[in-house]
Amino acid sequence: MDIFQAIKERRTIHSFSPNKVSKEIIERSIDAANYAPCHRLTFPWRFTSLGEKKRELLFQLQLKINFGDDYSITEQKIEKIKSKMFNPSHLLIASQISTNDPVQKLEDYASCACAIQNLSLSLVADGVGCKWSTGRITRHSHTYEIVGINPQDEEIIGFLWVGYGVIPSPITRPTSSLTFREKF
Ligand SMILES: Cc1cc2nc3c(=O)[nH]c(=O)nc-3n(C[C@H](O)[C@H](O)[C@H](O)COP(=O)(O)O)c2cc1C
User: Fold this and answer.
1) How far apart are CA 127 and CA 116, in angstroms?
2) Helix-strand-coil split of the chain, %, nearest 5
3) pTM of this structure
4) pLDDT digit string (tens) for 36-95?
């Protein structure tokens, strides 16, 4: 696929079908991520693919975060969270290797974002969608325990939901007259 086509076709997928993505496609996307630039060759990104048991634990945590001990929640609301948690073929936890140097931390985050974009574009080229999500659950201490990441070593910077899904309607993008300036 042409690079411009992949860039323009990449969208955040919100609604996934339960069809499975092959290991080969996932591995190709990780390889693409590894070609992202990083200052001082820190290669600060890590991706952790979670199996069903871990996703079940995250589902329970998400229910607790959203509804606490409110036992009056409807089946419909539970089902909505369940499908979000289980429909996507893969859940990859994106994390960034920790550093005490604030400049390196900023630059490493930029590199991680580049890596995630490479990963997403590789998936697009294979006809697969992705969603980068952040929220209370991605920062929650129990998430670190469930995933098995020591928060001293790595910071979770998002969940990457991967799978086949519905492409959302187009959004209005900025034109270059807004985002590009020339000064003489
Ligand atoms: C760092 C980051 C965090 C995001 N977190 C969420 C999220 O929690 N929930 C969500 O629906 N989309 C999330 N998104 C996706 C954006 O909402 C999405 O990129 C934006 O709406 C533009 O749509 P597009 O990706 O289809 O171009 C996130 C994107 C980035 C880069």
Assistant:
1) 16
2) 50, 20, 35
3) 0.97
4) 999 999 999 999 999 999 999 999 999 999 999 887 888 999 999 999 999 999 999 999
Q: Is the CB of 134 under 6 A from ligand 1?
A: yes
| Residue 4 burial by Cβ neighbours in a 10 Å radius (0-12, 13-18, 19+) | exposed
Q: What is the token pair recorded at 54?
A: 């871990």
What is the rounded CA–CA span in Å between residue 148 and residue 50? 10
| CATH number, span 3-179 | 3.40.109.10
- pLDDT digit string, tens, across residues 12-48: 999 999 899 999 999 999 999 999 999 999 999 999 9
Alpha-carbon gap, residue 79 to 22, rounded angstroms: 26
**Quick check: CB of 117 below 6 Å from ligand 1?**
no
Nearest atom, ligand 1, residue 168 CA = 26
